[in-house]
Amino acid sequence: ERKHIAAVKPQPPPAILLSPNHSLYNEINQITAEHLKFLEDKNDDGEDNWIMLHEEGEMKVYKRELEEDGLVLDPLKAVHTVKGITGHEICHYFWDLNVRMDWEGTLESSRCIEWLSEDTFISHNIIKRVWPASQRDAVFWSHIRHVINEDEEEPDTWIVVNYSTDHPTVPVGKYVRVKMNVSMACQTLIEPPDDGEITRDNITCKISYTANVNPGGWAPASVLRAVYKREYPKFLKRFTSYVKEVTAEKAIML
Ligand code: 18C
């Protein structure tokens, strides 16, 4: 009996392109899965106590107030809808270390310390100093993934996760080490044109961003909260405008 072989579009890998023997294999897949689950649950973490921090057009930024041992750990989430760019593009530019300093306003420097696989690397990032707190740094892996939707009618998801890790080449030293768990996830909606090819006018990107940051050491709560309130909306605006600008004349990355 002849088996029917359907023509299928190439499927992205369901897991990181890293050897399952690598010590970070499970962590990266698990943390990424947690972010995807949170999205699937429509950002609903059971308690509806998110506080609106900032609203501007389609952009909405929320936080939850959380303190532990006097440290501000406020989880943050944001949603945004941007026309003319795709989720693949947003995630590509958020992940690509070669352009990080082109849109990042809060870092003094950023450098790659190790490539784990084609889709994942570890970087060392020195954060700008905020008076009167000590200067911070962060070491994290950045993983990018394309997730196919099992429901063919529903859009795929692109996601980037930035998650703190340790690396023997950058021990804690000069700076206070920040810990973080950040995700940027996107879905692209395409409104097919009546005739002709899809253009940037036909695409809309739905973005969900989450950040859980532990400042790592004492920082005055009121200053930190004021900095977050200012910096997260600023980042979302600056980063999405950056992506619109650099992609405007380029072929659409679907
Ligand atoms: O997600 C973002 N960027 C990614 C790529 O870089 C990555 C990085 C996340 C960084 C998390 C920030 C850690 C903050 C640590 C606390 C600092 C303590 C300061 C003490 C204050 C009293 O995932 C985008 C990140 C969006 C911006 C986050 C706001 C963080 C503000 C940190 C302050 C930086 C200084 C701002 C510049 C002001 C200059 C004087």
- By CATH, the superfamily of the domain at 49-103 and 146-164 and 178-247 comes out as START domain
Specify the CATH architecture of the domain at 49-103 and 146-164 and 178-247: 2-Layer Sandwich
Average pLDDT value?
94
Rg (CA only): 19 Å
Portion of residues in helices? 10-25%
Largest sheet: 10 strands, mixed
Number of strands: 12
- Ends: how far apart? 38 Å
Work out the strand percent: 25-35%
Number of helices: 4
**Unreliable parts:** none
Order of helices and strands: HEEEEEHHEEEEEEEH
Give me the secondary-structure category: alpha+beta
Describe the global form: globular
Ligand species: N-((E,2S,3R)-1,3-dihydroxyoctadec-4-EN-2-yl)stearamide
Task: Write structural notes for this entry.
With 254 residues, this protein is an alpha+beta fold. It has a domain of 144 residues: START domain (Alpha-D-Glucose-1,6-Bisphosphate, Chain A, domain 4). It is 23% helix and 35% strand. It has four helices and twelve strands; from the N terminus they run H-E-E-E-E-E-H-H-E-E-E-E-E-E-E-H. Strands 1, 2, 5, 6, 7, 8, 9, 10, 11 and 12 form a ten-stranded mixed sheet that branches. Strands 3-4 form a two-stranded antiparallel ribbon. A hairpin with a 2-residue loop joins strand 6 and strand 7. The mean pLDDT is 94. N-((E,2S,3R)-1,3-dihydroxyoctadec-4-EN-2-yl)stearamide binds next to strand 7, strand 8, strand 11 and helix 4. N-((E,2S,3R)-1,3-dihydroxyoctadec-4-EN-2-yl)stearamide (18C) binds next to strand 7, strand 8, strand 11 and helix 4.
